[in-house]
Amino acid sequence: MSRLNDTNIEVLRFLLIGIPGLEKRHIWVSIPFSTVYLLSLLGNFTVLFFIKTEPNLHEPMYYFLLMLSISDVGLSLSSLPTTLGLFLFGINEICAAACFAQEFFIHLFTVTEASVLSVMAFDRYMAIHNPLRYSTILTTSRVIKTGVLLTSKNIILILPLPFLLQWLTYCHQNLLSHSYCLHQDVMKLACSDNRVNVVYGLCAALSTILDSLFITFSYIMILKMVLGIATPREQLKALNTCISHICAVLLFCVPMLSAAMLHLFARDLSPMIHILMADVFLLVLPLINPIVHCVKTHQI
Fold this sequence. Notes:
Helix content is 73%, strand content 3%. The protein is built from 11 helices and 3 strands. It has helices at residues 26-53, 60-89, 96-129, 134-137, 140-158, 160-166, 183-187, 195-227, 232-240, 243-265, 271-296, and strands at 13-16, 93-95, 175-176. The longest helix has 34 residues, at 96-129.
């Protein structure tokens, strides 16, 4: 960070607020948070273990599920150190470099989750549209190449964010709104021009919006094909293969869109609402995803 003049103090550390009004009850707040983290990691590592060890799960659909579980594990581990550090041990400070690194990983795994869900939508479309050629179109090598391509694209997309934050000047205000670092949260504390950060943040968000539109388009095509099937029983059978993915998409999109709408149109609401919405997205999503897929996927 650049050194400020004598009238300002350079901020080298940020303060994490956790949940406003519950500062004296952090040890009790840590119990549900620790439980959610433990269960989400246990659930996703279980999915990863079975997909890796069971030969009958070595198919494209389960490889995409493996990518989704890796994203969920990354999302949980990205926010876990500061969240449990704050609630369990009262550590409410984070240095600027660690904050920017945490912000990078949280946003990286978020956009990766959206990318994997969009590819899984295409996977479901191919399985219903052309089931006889499904295994020849989506081969293992193509799935691996797709995973590498998506990961590379997302790293390139998100990598500038921490550097853009580092180039900003921070003075006086250093109190963050959450128990972890988010780009939009840190950016608001800058006392220098942050328009570049705003514009690039919107461009990064556009990637997730495009993924959501692709998922919507895929399901419009799937619904069109399903309605063309002769018998209701076969229609339900085709739709049943998409249930777990639809649940995963809703779990991802509903909290994210709700938080975005609240941020844009309901800024006068209690900060507690905004904080809880962000916590639901980062904590509940990795917890529910493995449960949904294990319940709805007979092989697992």
